[in-house]
Amino acid sequence: MRNTLLCCDWGTSSLRLSWVNTQELQIIDEVSGQEGIASTYNAWKESTDKNISQKEFFLQKLQQQINVLATKLGVDLNNIPVVLSGMASSSIGLEELAYAEVPFALDGSKATVRSFEKQPEFSHETVLISGVRNQRDVMRGEETQLIGLVHLMNLPDSKQKEIVFVFPGTHSKHIQVQNNAIINFQTYMTGEFFNLIAQHSILKNSIKNPKQEKLTEADWEGFSRGVQESAKATILHTLFSVRTNQLFNHLTKAQNFFYLSGLLIGTELRSLQQKTVPQIVLSSGSNLYPFYQRAIEELQLTDQTLVVSPEIIDKAAMVGQVRIFEQQLTPI
């Protein structure tokens, strides 16, 4: 099992565990599920065993996932090092770690990590990676993805000009890079705000999720209208147009669902129009990729935007974890 590593991207609502060939930077196999940090923390709080510590409980859950992967592969994964990133280093995770600060070098050398020795119940050396902060913002996980992305791609030279990497998600991140380091970043609660509006506001009665894999031209028309509407007023005003669209029969409820998405994504990305940004790199997974790409086209940001394929983004966190592991410890 030499030259392999167990890489775990443990987010708020999901977990992804990969067995990785570190020389070829290839995933041998993986398991994933909805056993995220939040649900695991809640399970620990509700546990009847009051003698088990938070760290011990999280290691037990991680060991269960390693066992699932080992059974799937038919191999013994004991003694293979584990590297963790994402929300595992938060106050509701395995152990809380202080954030690294900007400027943050993209070779992984400035990452804040904590190493744990093997234990009788957990036979893996473990490296826990923390996140990054600036004066008013924090992130956990995206910095590791970015380290991997920069390693994987022949990206524009950041020594001469600033590059903004856009990572869509529940809490989207716009990360400014210059001189091969993160110099600043901003968080946009686009995904979470969409879910709140769509599920818990008066506007939920004006939209309907069509739950179809492929959008129709009418769906895309609704999305584009939302992007364009985002320029007309502040979001607190334009949001009410979701209701009037339905009341005045301007859009169907299904179109309105995508209109709301366009309204919020358009609001997020318009911040890039307000800055002098020579280069934008859209770094999106497959679920949100077509929406952000369409919004960039609608906002006429295409000429200055490099779009990274979802396949590369899917691999970026793992590569970033390997890079940080190699920087912090002896080479694998």
Automatic annotation (TrEMBL):
Record Pfam families: DGOK (PF05035)
Originating organism: Adhaeribacter arboris
Entry keywords, A to Z: Kinase, Transferase
Any GO MF annotation of the entry: 2-dehydro-3-deoxygalactonokinase activity
Classification via InterPro entries: DGOK, DGOK_C, DGOK_N
CDD domains: ASKHA_NBD_KDGal-kinase (cd24012)
GO biological process terms on file: D-galactonate catabolic process
Descriptive protein name: 2-keto-3-deoxy-galactonokinase
